[in-house]
Amino acid sequence: MRFSAAALLLPLSVAACQPGSVQQALGSESGTTGQALERAPSGLEQKVLTVRTTAGQLHRFTVEVARSPQEQEQGLMNRQSLAPDRGMIFPYAPPQPVSFWMKNTYIPLDMLFIRPDNSIARVETAVPLNLDPVPSLEPISAVLEIPGGRAAELGIKPGDRVSW
C-alpha cells in the first residue's frame, strides 16, 4: 500500500495522486517512450524501462505501470515473487513528495525515487510487511520498485538515469 506525505498526518488516508501520461510523468532521454507490451496478469499496462548508470551500464526491466490511485494503493501487495528483470512504476504528475510502506507486501523491494529530470534521487531497500514509511525526501515524478537487493547487485545508485 502506498501513501502520500499528507497521509502521515492522517493515518487512515491513502494517497490520491493525479497520474499523468507516461511522457508527462517521466519523459525519456531519447525522446521516445518504452515499448508497449501486453498487459500483465494483474491487468496493468507493461512497459520496457531502462536504467543507465553513471558508469554507462544499461539495465532493462519490464515494469507494470500503476497509474490510478487504486492501482498505486495495491502496488505489489500479496505477490509471492518478482523476477529479477521485472518491476512496477508509479508515476506522479505533478511531481510530489511521497511515502511508501510494505503493508501486505511479502517480498523485499528496492524503491528507486525518480526526480522530474529522470535521475534517481535515492534508493531504499524495503523490508517485507514493514509499516514504517519510506519517504521520497523531495518531490519526485515516479517510484520504481524492483526486487530487493537488485539495485546494489547491478550497481544502480542515485544520479543514474531512468527512461521508459
UniProtKB/TrEMBL annotation:
Coiled coil: none annotated. The keyword DNA-binding does not apply. It holds the Pfam family DUF192. The keyword Chloroplast does not apply. Residues 1-16 form the signal peptide. Keywords: Signal. InterPro entries: DUF192, Saro_0823-like_sf. PANTHER family: UPF0127 PROTEIN MJ1496. This is DUF192 domain-containing protein. The lineage of its organism: Bacteria, Pseudomonadati, Pseudomonadota, Alphaproteobacteria, Sphingomonadales.
